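Write out the 3D structure for:
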Amino acid sequence: MEQTGTGAAICPSCTTPSPITVRQWADDFALGSLAFDFWSWPPLTEDFITEFASRLGHRIEHRIGKF
């Protein structure tokens, strides 16, 4: 069985730790364990992104280009 730990990010202003999965990062950056690449697709519409997030049931961040 795979075991995972918990991760916390420390706020540089108030030094309060918070889980990295709920932290509000600068530039709408997000950390998670699930990613999708849509190769050779036209640009994703806002309606598609909204529906995709709704079906996943989680907050998502949309990125264009390479990391």
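The chain has one helix and two strands.
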